[in-house]
User: Which sequence fits this backbone?
């Protein structure tokens, strides 16, 4: 079992739909990151959180430390949101080493 | 907009050749990471530095890979000799305070070893 598991692996949505991507982890963490990787390959850090909830534009990230679970929500999805979304955690004892999920491929159709 | 700069963007080389990848972290960032991404393994940490000192390079094959920070504005990753299994995208990332700060990624170097 991977230390970081994401679901779903692939997600196809229609423009305007509300999207949720889930991330579960099995280790104690100091922080959880949500990353976005576009088809061109570049990686962008969307959120880093260790508790609660963060919002940036149409993106919302939540984390439940007790349940070892985080969700990334996209409201009013748009085709430009199509990308791979990657969850990564830095463990309590692993320093700055990140453990990555396998990513969720999101496709938003017009 | 400050960004992490990686060169080259693409590199095609023959097996056995030396490959050097370079990274300029964002000015003021004291932590620099090297990651490798393949279809099979996803993203893996190769090495990281804080204040130019190597803190963890356990993810790196020591016999052929080496990572250095000659100064605060340059990080290098070398492979000598390169092998076809090294073909991957290599990302550099930097952050201000390590695990307590967001990561900023470069655009990556796509390496193909034939």
Assistant:
């Amino acid at each position: 079992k991977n230390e970081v598991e994401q679901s779903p692996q692939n997600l196809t949505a229609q423009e305007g739909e509300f999207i949720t991507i889930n991330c579960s982890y099995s280790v104690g963490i100091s922080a959880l990151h949500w990353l976005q990787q576009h088809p061109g390959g570049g990686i962008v850090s969307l959120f880093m959180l260790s508790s609660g909830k963060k919002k940036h534009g149409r993106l919302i990230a939540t984390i439940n430390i007790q349940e070892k679970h985080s969700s990334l929500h996209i409201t009013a999805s748009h085709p430009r949101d199509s990308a791979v979304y990657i969850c990564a955690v830095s463990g309590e004892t692993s320093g700055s080493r990140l453990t990555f999920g396998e990513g969720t491929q999101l496709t938003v159709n017009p | 907009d400050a960004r992490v700069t990686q060169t080259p963007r693409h590199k095609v080389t023959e097996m056995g050749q030396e490959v050097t990848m370079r990274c300029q972290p964002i000015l003021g960032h004291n932590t620099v990471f090297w990651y490798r991404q393949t279809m099979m393994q996803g993203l893996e940490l190769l090495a990281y530095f804080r204040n130019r000192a190597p803190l963890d390079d356990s993810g790196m094959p020591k016999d052929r890979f080496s990572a250095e920070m000659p100064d605060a504005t340059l990080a290098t990753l070398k492979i000598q000799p390169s092998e076809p299994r090294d073909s991957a995208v290599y990302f550099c990332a930097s952050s201000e305070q390590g695990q307590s700060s967001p990561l900023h990624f470069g655009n990556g170097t796509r390496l193909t070893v034939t």
